[in-house]
Amino acid sequence: VRTKPHLNIGTMGHVDHGKTTLTAAITKVLAEQEPGGANHYVAFDRIDRAPEEVERGITITIAHVEYETPTRHYAHVDMPGHADYVKNMITGAAQLDGAVLVVSAQDGAMPQTREHVVLARRIGVEHVVVALNKADLAEDEDLLDLVELEVRELLTRYGFDGERVPVVRVSGLRALEGDPVWTQRVLDLLAAVDEHVPIPPRRLDLPFLMPIENVLTITGRGTVVTGAVERGTLEVGDAVEVIGLGPAVSTVATGLETFGKPMARAEAGDNAAVLLRGVKRGEVRRGQVVCLPGSVRPHTRFRADVHVLSAAEGGRRTPFAANYRPQFHFRTSDVVGVVTLDEGVTQVRPGAAASLTVELGQPVAMSPGLGFAMREGRLTVAAGTVREVLD
Ligand code: GDP
């Protein structure tokens, strides 16, 4: 029985700014809190690494840490930087109720800091708390003040409330080493998350939808798909449909688990594993969605509004023209598409806002408002929102 509201949070920020170290520090600091002690913080279920995505020959590992504060239950996702970080972020961001933006006090905002902030905003992360990390290395407070100011301005520029965003000066490394002063700062950061990130309206009344992150086969039981429930609820025995990318599969959810524990019901915000009756491994794959039958349809053509990233945001250096063919990332899917520009527009420059018509090579489950990223290899070209579905 769930007694506290559940939230999903995650770390984002430039490579080497300390995301993974901070996640490890949070886990360690919470694990050392006295049960029932003054803070009532509990960390359980250390780190649970998702299995490799063998099917596509790439490794997508996302570490989940689960913990409770006095008022809430959190699933915290760290998307390691060594893999294709942005791809993992697109997978995870739609599910995040809030994010901890990790900025190294030594380096300040870097291209990936801006790239992640742009994407977070488009893909639906509404609340950010800043961990001004590596504060142990700063020789004076003036430098920290400067970086803080820069980060606040950056957040404001991309549509967050930069004035009000909490900025907590931390040292993930020193907290991990057990230093009491820096340990307290990590607790301060968590308290800031508790205070600043509101309990999201759980989209429980909407039809069930869960993007598939991984497909596993459990010997003797069948095919299991895992992901974070985007909306609605699912109970054991409910009929579901798996759609997008290929032929639709209709079946029944015969089992449900979250963090390795069986449950009767999964709801928006939960990380879930769903056992699908009579489905073979090859019939379903990452990038599809599991949904209430008939509640959403796959589409190949749509109109979109995009923000084209500049080079300083980690984007292209040169414009793109009509018939440009980048990859489109929606939730957990990655599909090639062809871009058509509006009449009279011959090219789109980095840094510009544009409206585009897109034709995808494979259908994707979508409706207006869905966020996506346009990428070329590992370069994020644009972040966009579906405005209108065509066919
Ligand atoms: P990530 O790529 O953002 O996940 O960064 P990591 O957590 O892997 O950290 C990158 C490097 O910065 C590692 O060598 C860490 O030991 C170091 N580092 C991380 N946090 C801190 C910190 O608070 N202070 C100092 N001095 N070094 C840190």
Give structural attributes:
single chain, 391 residues, 8-stranded antiparallel beta sheet, 7-stranded mixed beta sheet, 6 helices, globular, binds guanosine-5'-diphosphate
Summarize the structure.
With 391 residues, this protein is α+β, with helices and mostly antiparallel strands. It has six helices and 25 strands.
Describe this structure in words.
- This is Elongation factor Tu.
- One of its GO terms (molecular function) is metal ion binding.
- It comes from Amycolatopsis iheyensis.
- One of its GO terms (cellular component) is cytosol.
- InterPro entries: EF-Tu_GTP-bd, EF-Tu_GTPase, EFTu-like_2, EFTU_2, P-loop_NTPase, Small_GTP-bd, T_Tr_GTP-bd_dom, Transl_B-barrel_sf.
- The protein is an alpha+beta fold and 391 residues long.
- Helices cover 19% and strands 38% of the residues.
- It is built from six helices and 25 strands.
- The chain has helices at residues 19-31, 85-93, 111-123, 141-157, 172-176, 180-196; strands at 6-12, 42-49, 63-68, 73-78, 98-104, 128-133, 167-169, 209-211, 214-218, 222-228, 233-235, 239-243, 249-258, 261-262, 265-267, 271-276, 289-291, 298-308, 320-321, 327-330, 333-341, 347-348, 353-365, 371-376, 379-389.
- Strands 8, 9, 10, 12, 13, 14, 16 and 17 form an eight-stranded antiparallel beta sheet that branches.
- A hairpin with a 2-residue loop joins β24 and β25 (379-389).
- α1 (19-31) packs across α6 (180-196) and α2 runs parallel beside α3.
- Residues 36-61 have low confidence and may be disordered.
- Bound molecules: guanosine-5'-diphosphate.
- Guanosine-5'-diphosphate binds next to α1 and α5.
- The site of guanosine-5'-diphosphate has 15 residues, from α1 and α5.
